[in-house]
Amino acid sequence: MSSDWISFDFGALIDSFWATTFDGLTLGAIYALVALGYTLVYGVLNLINFAHSEVFIAGAFAVVFFLSALGFGPSAPTLPIGMLILDLVLAGIIAMVVSGGTAVLVERIAYKPLRNRGASRLAFLISAIGMSFVLQYIFYEWRGATAEPAVTMFRPKPIFEVFGSIIDSQQLTIFIAAVVMMVCVDQIVQRTKLGRGIRAVAQDPDTATLMGVNKERIIVATFAIGGFLAGAAALFYVMRVPSGVFYMGGFILGIKAFTAAVLGGIGNVRGALLGGLLVGLIGNYGATILGDSQWTDVVIFIVLILVLMIRPNGILGSNLGEARV
Amino acid sequence: MALLEIKDLEVRYGRIKAVEEISVDVDASEIVVLIGANGAGKTTTMRAVSGLLAARTGSITFKGEDVTRLKGHQRVRKGISLVPEGRGIFPGMTVRENLDMGTYALQGKNPESEYDRVFELFPRLKEREKQMGGTMSGGEQQMLAIGRALMANPEVLLLDEPSMGLAPQFIRQIFAIIREINAQGTTVLLVEQNANQALAIADRACVLEAGRLTKTGTGRELLEDSTIRDVYLGG
Ligand SMILES: Nc1ncnc2c1ncn2[C@@H]1O[C@H](COP(=O)(O)OP(=O)(O)OP(=O)(O)O)[C@@H](O)[C@H]1O
Ligand SMILES: [Mg+2]
Fold first, then answer.
1. For a tag site, which of A108, A312, B67, B92 has the least CB within 10 Å?
2. What is the DSSP code string of A109-121?
3. Does residue A203 belong to the interface with chain B, where contact is any CB pair within 8 Å?
4. CATH topology of domain B27-53+73-232
5. What's the whole-model pTM score?
6. What is the DSSP letter of A50?
7. Residue spans per domain, chain B
8. Is the ipTM of this complex over 0.85?
9. Which residue's CA lies nearest to atom 26 of ligand 1?
């Protein structure tokens, strides 16, 4: 049966398999960074912070504004490499501060007052969704519906060839930087005193208090870490999708990142990495086969549902520090 | 002056009064026991003393300092440690990591001597250092919970029903260990349903009924009290 609204082209995937894979891993690394924010907060508060997508896009706006102010525009700048790296690192730091600050602000405004009053989980959920909308519409009122002008950071250069496909400098930068950051977060959670506090609050908040853990401080730190990672993700997102910054941009990416967190096992740091990469790959393969990126989300959700039918807690299980690969 | 003074404590859950007019003094190096039926308010009292619940009225004084307004995590640093009802083992941490959590409040102090003390009291914990807390048996978890509380080197150790769900010979062992900990100089406030054995090691004891203290005396006095024998000691 043939129809024009959907068609399957497996040949397209076979032809471009490795290129699709490398690009999927790049996108997946970005999803994974954002997914970590969902997962860490879920770990300590058992709460899906729906406003995390806006935490992310706030950082992306910061990147665009900062780089535009430095003269970056639609075509790649001609800067000495050292200057370029400096600019990008600065943009990353600014995005991390903006996203981290937004995350902490969301915590203070939307969740802490409810926590102090011992509100029900439903109240937290509504507050989370409400906060997400409030931020989205603030961005909308402020910047309108159209995307910010593109800022191109550099023209991707081929670095090496694998299986006949090029891996370029952009893919390599994003993938390596994101994975290094995630390994750092994993090590912080596993090895530092802050990490022990986070895991303790995640597993048993009252007992954590009895051990001398200041739960409120751990919660703020967790939101801040999630925000920093979202800020870093924002830099890489603008790098990969230079004209993707508008008020709904966070929502679109956030859904994928949230899916990644659930797929890997929400509350599980390594699960977020695995889930992110999988969502990146699945989405890209799906879009290639179906010949249209509109289908990406559909494919991702079908896979999510199938996985959750077999493993309801996600691939690696859903407890912070509990599942160890 | 008592080491720990609970004075006119009242705690509510919403509008429900769980305990009221609770006053207990715990002197340094004593074992004080609280007994009472299910729902009498024992856990509520312990959680209020350790700062997990706020006192509505009344005060808690420790070493002469009013700690009523201090948060739970600050009271550990003062030297008050609670082994909670249900043990509160971190299931996804190993035995060693659980013990490490006990040192969280020790800012910068070297806990080596604490590890030695705990492993001497509970050799089993040393053998199981790498086992996940959640996979330990109930009795082992109780040992771990007590050991972990000792890691903070508390001056007063609060124990909420440490014998709950344990086999008789294990219960005897736990009581022997509580005496040992006390002999090493740690003051103990113990909540128990096992009134017989608890009163036998108590310097002083109180009976809690429906949120109020109804009797206090030495352990021996309460053991010999006929109404207490009927209600709590099975006749
Ligand atoms: N979170 C809560 N919300 C409302 N009421 C509570 C809560 N926790 C305890 N209560 C009530 O407070 C009273 C005292 O409870 P508490 O747990 O202190 O009793 P207990 O003496 O420790 O009992 P047990 O021996 O069964 O452990 C009970 O009536 C109980 O139902
Ligand atoms: Mg109780």
1. A312
2. IIIHHHHHTT--H
3. yes
4. Rossmann fold (3.40.50)
5. 0.91
6. T
7. 27-53+73-232
8. yes
9. B38
